[in-house]
Amino acid sequence: MGMGFHAIAQPKYSTSSKKAIRNLEDGIELYNKRVELEKMGQRGEAFAFGDKALQSFSKALQADSACWEAYILSGELLLDMKRTAEAAERFRIITQRNPGFFPNAFFSLGLAYNQLMRYKEAEVALTRFLSSKQGDAPIQARARRSLASARFGAWALDHPVPFNPVNLGPNINSKHEEYLPSLTADLSTLIFTVRQPDDTLSPSSIQKLHEDFYTSKKENGSWAQRKNLGPPVNTTGNEGGQSISADGQILIFTGCEEMPGQYAGGRKGLGSCDLFVSFRRANGWGQAQNLGRTINSPAWDTQPSLSADGTTLYFVSKRSGGKGGSDLYFSTLTAEGEWAPPLNLSDSLNTPFDELSPFIHPDNQTLYFASNGHPGMGGMDLFVARRKPDGTWGKPVNLGYPINTPEEETSLAVSALGTEAFYAANRKEGYGSLDIYSFNLYPEARPIATTYVKGIVKDAESGKPLGSELTLIDLSTGKKIAETSSNPSDGEFLVCLPSGKSYAFNVGLTGYLFHSGHFDLPSGISLDTYQQDVMLQSIRAGKRVVLENIFFESGSFQLGASSTYELNRLVELLNKNPNLKLEVAGHTDNVGDSKANLLLSENRAKSVVNFLESKGIQRERLKPTGYGDTKPIAPNDTELGKKKNRRTEFTVL
Fold it and tell me: What is the maximum span of the chain, computed from C-alpha positions, in angstroms?
């Protein structure tokens, strides 16, 4: 709300006209009534009282054009009602005709000019206000922030970024508000928030806006008709921001009180809004669970974003101890599978004002969020920040104009590849209010390109879907990049793969031989997605597994350092199955002398066996064998075929 009504208290009015005073006081009373109605959520009635208050202030000015209080109060009210051009004119008049009466008018004039994108005029007004040293500390802070935004806005108008927003269409958007989009990494599933009138109330009831989640699937390149996500996630209470995991198996979302101290749907809450989690089941989403006191506080906790590897949760909170307003927080998953106490994200990102709607990209290095505390176009703007090599966050960068405007831009999601972005905006060509749009994200604002491997894990013999463990390893460091599982009901999985690395991809389940996969993703290449259905073999004699991540230098039998993870996985398999005996076989392509190839393959098999023995595996359980170039699995007339033939594998004896 405007601040003018609280800032001009004086022993007497500037006018002696009784008619002007009577209308002025009528306007103040009507305005205060508007404030009360807005607090009660009665926006329609509040709007009507705002109009009536403006009429009273206009009558006061008609009675006495020097009734300065009417200029100030009507200007603040017009600004609050987003009739910004009219507000600016009221403030301009008083700053020109009686600048000493209310110096804070220069501050309000600067705010109005920022909203009108008249940034150079805003800079003049705000500089004048700050030089007067008027106003309390919070207003001074807001003025300094607005001055920085005026200077940035002027620069941004002269340096626009490429922007081509496309409305997602009537299957997604409506005359009501759609916002906070969240997508799976393969862009096949969209979940978003819709705020619309509660249709459970009778027509005579006071209109109440209600938030629910809706979802849509992409079919033949287009978004299908949206559907209410339904119970048990949606309830009669409000469900706000949410984050669907990259693989579509986990939904972390905001649930808010239906009434003070009472959550809808039987949920137990700890504050006004809490974070909950639900897991995908064969017939929909499972019962939601509160993330508990470690994550949630007595304050407002909302707008989650789960990292693609599932190990870090980012969210917004107004809990005590923050930088001010709403801040960004994060929590990491412990080795025991519990969320650690949340930490304030970063001094470089959080400000004394508001930060909202974090989105961590699947590259796990790039964070998008909204803020009105960093220099912007005048309201909430969208920013991008990048993680530095030491793990801290760099300085946020405004995404620029016309992505950002003086309106409120507060929710953004970016595709895994990094080229397509989704956001909510109230644009003239929309369907009536906030709509969800997609647009091509310009290169400088893109994250690290990330692709994914997806598929289904099945029993190789029966074809039955399996719920198995999946691990992605950075072969250059041996560190786990992601650890997830396939859904036991249908066997589906999805794991993200940032470019610029080589990965070991491992799938395992008790009672089965593990699956070994390998992906090389150099930087700067055109990324394709990988469909890989995994057929796990039960532990039985004759079953064979190619070890895709055992590496030797050309012509050498010395094990490469990046082979360690795969070898340890083999040690783990042998330790869990003490009766298991294996043949470890080496193979080569047909390049060179066959006898030399046979000897090299034998020595490579022995190197693997020696490693296993060094880890405590009994030698009699292992049979090293070299086959040279005698058992190719692909033609040797291409480099790819030769690479497949140069392999290490094991067979159950």
Answer: 114
